[in-house]
């Protein structure tokens, strides 16, 4: 396929471009970073610099594509003014899906977020109703980032109602690679009292990239939503025990498929996409959360 990957110079985008190239697809990467013209600098696929909040730019990069994988976004609400986060994320998604519908693109993969539930950056804090969290969990977004992701998924719903495009929204857990496992997850591995809104869940960037390839290659009709997270939690702790220790009975515990389960249920992705994660925090960290020598 001819695949457009937005946000291609970011952490997730770089891994995603490489995964599509490795799978034999023709890739055009899109980002705000200036192109590199120096001889000898190898960047997989073709690259186009574009601001996707501009409709004309979105149309120009989507034309001729078989699939669009929309990774680009401001990844959380605290580093930019709220209106910038919301406008950037929502308008880039709107422009791309509008262009994809008009050009007859067959598959759109929308990268959403686990924080869509709303408990990650709330002004009025709350806990999930149950764990592991799955695609049926109610959404209560408050902040501009979670709202932008919620509206993005609604744009996918609207697109499949009015056209033959097939859409998949992927909700990744917090994404890590070899550069930041220790700084991001090390303290949770050592001590689960370092609490996070995603209940000790995480995802390796290369497993996420594999899921995005499967989503783009999938023939699933309509618009499907999938959580993507590693099957274990950061540290390999007894999930039922630490959930009760730190949250008591405030979060309903649902059946687990393993003792060290993640706080996110990814059985739907395994069942419908055939996705099987291959990597773990254990590939990068020791039991004290320190980086392994590589």
Number of strands: 11
Report the average pLDDT across residues: 96
- Pattern of helices and strands: EHEEHEHEEHEEHEHEHEH
Radius of gyration: 19 Å
> Sheet bearing the most strands, described?
7 strands, parallel
Folded structure, characterized:
With 294 residues, the protein is α/β, with parallel strands linked by helices. It has one domain (2-178, 201-232, 265-280): Rossmann fold. It is built from eight helices and eleven strands. It has helices spanning 11-22, 55-62, 82-103, 144-162, 181-190, 205-217, 239-247, 267-272, and strands spanning 2-6, 26-31, 46-49, 67-70, 107-111, 130-131, 166-172, 175-176, 203-204, 223-228, 252-253. Strands 3-2-1-4-5-7-10 form a seven-stranded parallel beta sheet, with helices on both faces. The chain has a two-stranded parallel ribbon with strand order 6-11. α1 (11-22) links the parallel β1 and β2 (26-31). α2 (55-62) packs across α3 (82-103). The two termini are 35 Å apart. The mean pLDDT is 96.
